Amino acid sequence: MIAETDKNIIIIEDEYSIAMDIEMRLQKMGYRVVGIANSYNDALPLLLEESVDIALLDINLGEEKSGIDLGKLIRSKFNIPIVFITAYTDSKTFSEALEANPMGFITKPFKDADLHNNIQLAFNKFSKEVESSPEFKTDNKYIFIKDKGVFQQVEIDSILWIEAMDNYTIVHTKNEKLVVHAFLKDVLLRLGSPFVRIHRSHAVAMNKITTIEDNVVYIGKTFLIISQNYRSDLLDRMNIL
């Protein structure tokens, strides 16, 4: 079972052998594992530093803060889908897990198909969740950004670059800056392939890049730093002779 995907996954599992087993399964499916953590505290630096598309969490992390606690934090602060993995099937655990709004629930032991199907369902559910957001709408040529209660039409081709700012995203166009009440990851999901992420906090329009020099992208006179984690993705997208 091979999945053609560029999705980044983080695994939070306190049993090392199980985490390694999950990582190998995911890699065979074509997913990219960007980190493994064994506790609530170990997971936070990875979530902050890496570009994560989905988190797989064990409910029981063997410490004061559980996977459910972490799941609630991930959904509220990082706004990425989560899938719980657990050996517990009792109704109490399941009810508590639902409070974190997971996009999937896998019971140990599980088959590869269980893992793959839950991940795909999670991405599908999350995509629909983002699409239903009232703050940001899009069609093929324009986006509509909610500004003071009114949806303002913005031509996608006028966007130069995008900047993450806490729970907001700043859209920089040729003539103005617009603030969207959404995470950078969600905005990029709407805008699609014309844009490429170059840093945890920045993404740029491919056709607006004028120069790339070392670890810096120039858009006219504006320059933005390229993170090492995103450099290879950027170069793969460039039409380089």
Proportion in helices: 25-40%
Helix and strand element order: EHEHEHEHEHEEEEEEHEEEEEH
What is the CATH first-level class name of the largest domain?
Answer: Alpha Beta
Number of domains: 2
Instruction: Predict the CATH topology of the largest domain.
Output: Rossmann fold
Distance between the termini: 35 Å
* Integer average pLDDT: 85
Chain-wise SSE layout:
Elements: E1 8-12, H1 16-29, E2 32-37, H2 40-49, E3 54-58, H3 67-78, E4 82-86, H4 91-98, E5 104-107, H5 112-131, E6 136-138, E7 142-147, E8 150-155, E9 159-165, E10 168-173, E11 177-180, H6 184-191, E12 195-199, E13 202-205, E14 211-213, E15 216-219, E16 222-225, H7 228-237
Parallel strand pairs: 1-2, 1-3, 3-4, 4-5
Antiparallel strand pairs: 6-7, 7-8, 9-10, 9-13, 10-11, 12-13, 14-15, 15-16
